[in-house]
Amino acid sequence: MKKPNKILNHLKKQIQNEKKNNQIHAKITYIHENKIHVSLKNPTKIPKNTQIITHHIKGIITKNNHKNLEIKLTKPHKFRLHDKIIIKNIQNETITHKLEKIVSQIENNQLNEDNLETLQLLQTQINPEYDTNITYYNHKLNKNQNKAVKKALQTSKFHLIQGPPGCGKTYTIVNLIKQLHKNKKKILICSHTHIAVDNVVEKLENIADDDILRIGNKNKISQNNLKYTIDEHIKKAPEYSEIQKYKDKIEDIKSLTNKSSINNDPLIIDNNCESIFSRLFRKLLPTNNKTTNYINEVSYDENSIYELECKISNIENSLNDTIVRNVSIIATTVISASSFLIENVEFDYVIMDEASQVPLYLSLIALLKCEKFI
Ligand SMILES: Nc1ncnc2c1ncn2[C@@H]1O[C@H](COP(=O)(O)OP(=O)(O)OP(=O)(O)O)[C@@H](O)[C@H]1O
Ligand SMILES: [Mg+2]
Fold first, then answer.
1. Type and span of the H or E element at 57
2. Which residue, among 4, 1, 2, has the nearest Cα to 367 in the 3D structure?
3. Is the pTM of this model over 0.90?
4. Which CATH architecture has domain 5-95?
């Protein structure tokens, strides 16, 4: 198959734009520990709570009054007052990396047949083929809606459902999703905003909760759909009790270290702390190990917290893989389709509601994960 050069050039242009637009030039005007204030060369609308990265240090925007930002950095830094810095939105960085990966895959002929066909069709606008042996009728749908679902089931590659506002496009694709789910297909539902994604997911009331995963920032997901987030799936897994056990241990260690640090002299441990120490050490250490002195104990605490966190993260990673593999329906914005959670997941269908609102280059993040798209 020929290389999709039109799309390749379009992607390269978009990457350049993304890179240029994702550079906020700023000057540090205040520093207090990990909090910095910066004045901006050009005002930006970057919202509060956006995760950013500046000179390899991550942070979060805590205030934006248009010309000045307040940023909380996640770790110690070497910035000084009046330093000029460049701030980048992490999500935009992720998108750029994802697009660069797609460009590299196209250039090095690493795209699979399905994806190559998707790009060819998008740039040439050739109509797909339809398998007319597949029939469909649902008495809840009107004539055109029935036709749309039937065509979507029959298509060899993609089907476009168009119509004026309020004519029932979302209603139709919800029906289609239910039908595909019955046919045991793996589906990615996506759209340009969280609201649009949630609007579809909320209508999937007859599908089991365990079969839907909603990926995205919890603050932006509708209340009704929070039950589908990865955290809620993890809570239902049998391994969750183990995670909880490790989290409790970490809390024990932290509260113990805090209590001990109330003493000015680190070698003095009050009775209360000592009893917690011995309780904890009985849990964590082999019985023949004796505590030596506070310094050793504190460093042991830090190591054990790290070890426990690693254990939690190992269990969570393996659970993430299992959940993502087992659910039939995953729903996310096109941007969050670049999430590491579904980095290597292939879908039978990608269903994009309000697709006209999604720029082509962003839609590719989702479309290159599927065999067919609607
Ligand atoms: N066949 C149908 N039977 C019953 N109600 C329907 C049917 N089709 C659409 N509706 C209802 O009509 C309303 C508008 O439908 P819907 O939101 O699906 O339209 P839309 O084309 O997606 O609109 P928009 O362009 O604004 O996204 C909804 O309340 C929906 O439940
Ligand atoms: Mg709609």
1. strand 57-64
2. 4
3. no
4. Beta Barrel (2.40)
266 Cβ below 6 A of ligand 1: no
CA of 165 to the centre of ligand 1 (A): 9
Please report the atom of ligand 1 found closest to the CA of residue 145. Answer: 1
Span 112-236+328-373: which CATH code? Answer: 3.40.50.300
Asked whether 94 lines ligand 1 (CB < 6 A), one says no
d(CA 64, CA 268): 45
Domain boundaries, the chain: 5-95, 112-236+328-373
pLDDT in tens, 91-118: 899 999 999 999 999 999 999 999 999 9
Nearest of 147, 196, 229, 238 to residue 334 by alpha carbon: 196
* pLDDT, tens digit (0-9, with 9 covering 90-100), for 121-180: 888 877 889 999 999 999 999 999 999 999 999 999 999 999 999 999 999 999 999 999
CB neighbour burial string for 184-214, b if at least 16 within 10 angstroms, e if fewer: ebbbbbbbbbbebbbbbbebbeebeeeebbb
